[in-house]
Design a protein that fits this description.
There is one protein chain. The protein has 339 residues and is α/β, with parallel strands linked by helices. It has two domains: 207 residues, NAD(P)-binding Rossmann-like Domain (Rossmann fold, 3-Layer(aba) Sandwich), CATH 3.40.50.720; 91 residues, Alpha-Beta Complex (UDP-galactose 4-epimerase, domain 1), CATH 3.90.25. It is 42% helix and 17% strand. The protein has twelve helices and 13 strands. The strands form four sheets. The protein has a seven-stranded parallel β-sheet with strand order 3-2-1-4-5-6-11, sandwiched between helices. A two-stranded parallel ribbon has the order 7-10. It has a two-stranded parallel ribbon with strand order 8-13. Helix 1 packs across helix 7, helix 2 packs parallel to helix 4 and helix 4 runs parallel beside helix 5. It is globular. The mean pLDDT is 97. It binds nicotinamide-adenine-dinucleotide and 2'deoxy-thymidine-5'-diphospho-alpha-D-glucose. Nicotinamide-adenine-dinucleotide binds next to helix 1, helix 4 and strand 5.
Amino acid sequence: MNRKRILVTGGAGFIGGNFVQYMVEKYPIYDIYNLDLLTYAGDLSKHQEIEKQENYFFLKADIADRGAINSLFVEYKFDFVVHFAAESHVDRSITNPGIFVQTNVLGTQVLLDAAKQYGITKFIHVSTDEVYGDLEFDPTTFFTEDTPLQPNSPYSASKASSDLLVRAYHETFGLPINITRCSNNYGPYHFPEKLIPLTISRVLNNQKVPVYGDGKNVRDWLHVLDHCSAIDLVMHEGINGEVYNVGGHNERTNLEVVKTIIETLNKSEELIKYVSDRLGHDKRYAIDPSKLEKLGWKPKYTFETGIAQTIQWYIDNKKWWEKIISGEYQTYFEKQYTN
Ligand code: NAD
Ligand code: DAU
């Protein structure tokens, strides 16, 4: 039997990187191809361990480069595509929406065309709960797979557009697909522009932590390895054409998250600095994951166990994030938080 070839786009980023490591270790019978452009968010040093494995390969390419993507599909004849590559930070989409359309919409369409033309077993499109817009502060309401798409930021609008293209390629051309829509991830190798790693790294350095608005916005946090196991399940057991929401019922206000980190690190809440609110700031996200649970998924981490493990990881891996918060990151940080 031929070995299965899995194309993972964005495998040098946060979630894609965790997924690549998870798959290389769990499935020696699969060849895992990590395709990534290595933008500011991509970093290959995280893969030093798995680079020694015979079932791991790296391909540098832009998903929006049709010629390059077609050549790779011809050469490698992928069986599965697990598509993470994207511009992923909401704040950056507010200052520069164009690259979000280029990568998230056009890049996805290039991949869909290649998958359609050269044939695949399944295309897994990794999307986000942000495509549903936001919820009121009512703990009885949740996003289901039937919630209408009402994206509010250029980032979530670009993700919703890509979701609709994936759906259309399934309906029109019969492309075998699944779409997953996950809540906020956290865990190892999370880029320190996002709330949790930003807070941990700044608190460890005794620097102020910027909290947008009143800090009462709610996010539904999921450990990245629980997201990886969800995608693994959908890839193997998901019903063709279906959408699956991924979330673990871990709703916290941003202030609760920041205070938990400060308390765990034995620092003072005086490090909190309230700053101007994000434009169009979504109030609350909360996932109903019952459809995926019926398929057999169960998260391993509670927020308490996951955040403790994550904080410890950032203490143990200071070299990794110190490297990242130098250079371009400093310019970004000053621009973002001076405005
Ligand atoms: P990330 O920003 O950490 O990583 C994105 C990766 O994509 C990087 O390695 C980058 O180099 C690569 N990339 C960007 N443009 C590319 C291009 N044109 N061609 C090839 N590679 C390119 O993102 P993440 O947080 O790991 O998110 C991964 C996916 O999961 C995204 O599609 C995102 O929308 C989705 N998602 C993220 C979260 C979250 O909480 N982070 C939650 C739900 C869904
Ligand atoms: O819900 C899934 C989404 O989660 C993913 O699709 C996105 O790719 C991912 O970036 C994340 O989006 P958020 O905007 O929710 O994540 P972020 O970490 O940027 O912000 C989390 C919350 O914290 C949000 O309410 C804004 C707030 N925040 C963020 C930053 C960076 C602050 O208060 N201060 C900050 O400095």
